[in-house]
């Protein structure tokens, strides 16, 4: 298939995104909290890596109940991150380097400290009253961060709705005046040169009828409310399309079958979404904050299902880590003898699938989970509330900690490890959260100095992707889908045929003749033949995708039901 037949080459399809968690990236003023000046100091580092787009987690004024995902003023910079002048400086410095900036918009809810909510809760006559959702009596729906989804408002005696914490009241998208305010906020940032937005929990903005009983997983329940697509189409027509903004919507609860409704190009809604299918792969179905075992075959099936669902219809986003997940090496890879090989293998996976890749800060140097030892070391509201609930339920602290360390969001939020000096060179003060003690050996300075480091592998892998349209736009065909250890696939575009072979295990694996005649484009070991632990290879092959049938790795027929293709219609 030719490129003209597949997708238009929008700039954000060939781009590589880097996600920054500003609180933990680099602290320039020594107060222990990362800041905008700190980010500006490190832009050349991102350019060296080969990044095109930086997504900044929220930097707006916030009481930080949920670290900035509770916004008190959508047009103001939080003082701990700097000033609007610092923001403008950062935007200019990025522009000078050809880096595009994507801001995080938290529009499902505001902070309870936002002036809209302060006014709305004070009186039923407030002009902002209808910006939020009120009922005389609550129903029994649960909140994502624990407890019920309704909180009583003392001044007016009724109840307001919140899918997350009580300090994060949900905005009422039914109200056109509220929607106009939100679009104005988008215009404000676009005028400052922002190239696009990541839209927080955008799948939740339209609420289910309040008489519906809450069943199943909480994300599935709150997602895909009856008007979500009306709202997104309106936002697209009002702001996104006229201003040419890129969007990626965070979309918990959206299945591959429903994804085209959000991102099919002809629908005029969003450019990409982040799905949660692999984010939840090591969690119980009923409770996202409870760990469960995962299998490579499930990861393969999920990533393949998403490629199939969007192929030729919309564009995918690819991520293996973010600020809400433990470190990818600790979840999927190896933190011992094969740590470096595993880090390079997952770089290869992320950068050879179809879609726009999002690298989470620190993954490019192979950061891993932190050995938190007590409740006092955690900072996240999920840990605090989880422990409060566990204690109330009579659970033992050690038992709670043994579970929580496997799911904690704080692993992703420890300071970026710049060098071997105190706190990993993140701050000259006391960091707001402890650094992972492993910064003494895993840090940016060491990685830059070692040509074989994980960082330089990411850099080479990004450069290869940019030089190889088949890696961006090519068709994806899985090989030997049932293999429990090896993740293998081909990417094809025109007469270019690339084979990616990944041994996602700590054992050597015989792959017979697979790839024997290929030319290695990149790999994390030298040589061919039997795969070593966590070995990754990308090979250029002669021939056609359909020829990839060998006794060791035979191309599996894909069962349509298994791939979710049976529900693909409806766009
Ligand atoms: C998703 C964000 O990524 C997460 O960090 C936040 O806690 C929730 N949305 C609520 O805004």
Q: Uncertain segments of ≥5 residues (pLDDT<50)?
A: 1-7, 549-571
Strand order of the largest sheet: 11-10-9-5-2-1-13-12
| Mean pLDDT over all positions | 94
For this structure, what is the CATH homologous superfamily of the largest domain? Glycosidases
- By DSSP, the count of extended strands is 18
CATH class of the largest domain: Alpha Beta
Class based on secondary structure composition and strand pairing: alpha/beta
Q: Could you estimate the helical fraction of the residues in percent?
A: 25-40%
Distinct compounds present: 1-deoxynojirimycin
Number of domains: 4
- Continuous helix count: 16
Query: What is the alpha-carbon Rg in Å?
Result: 23 Å
Distance between the termini: 23 Å
CATH architecture of the largest domain, by name, is Alpha-Beta Barrel
Largest sheet data:
8 strands, parallel
Structure in words:
- The chain folds into 4 domains: 3-107 and 198-234 and 246-371 and 412-462, Glycosidases (TIM Barrel), CATH 3.20.20; 115-161, Oligo-1,6-glucosidase, Domain 2 (Oligo-1,6-glucosidase, domain 2, Alpha-Beta Complex), CATH 3.90.400.10; 373-407, no CATH class; 473-562, Immunoglobulin-like.
- Helix 5 (176-191) runs parallel beside helix 7, helix 11 (339-352) packs parallel to helix 15 (454-467) and helix 12 (381-392) runs antiparallel to helix 13 (397-404).
- The protein has 16 helices and 18 strands.
- With 571 residues, it is α/β, with parallel strands linked by helices.
- The strands form 4 sheets. The protein has an 8-stranded parallel sheet. Strands 14-15-16-18-17 form a 5-stranded antiparallel sheet. The protein has a 3-stranded antiparallel sheet with strand order 6-8-7, with no helix packed on it.
- It binds 1-deoxynojirimycin.
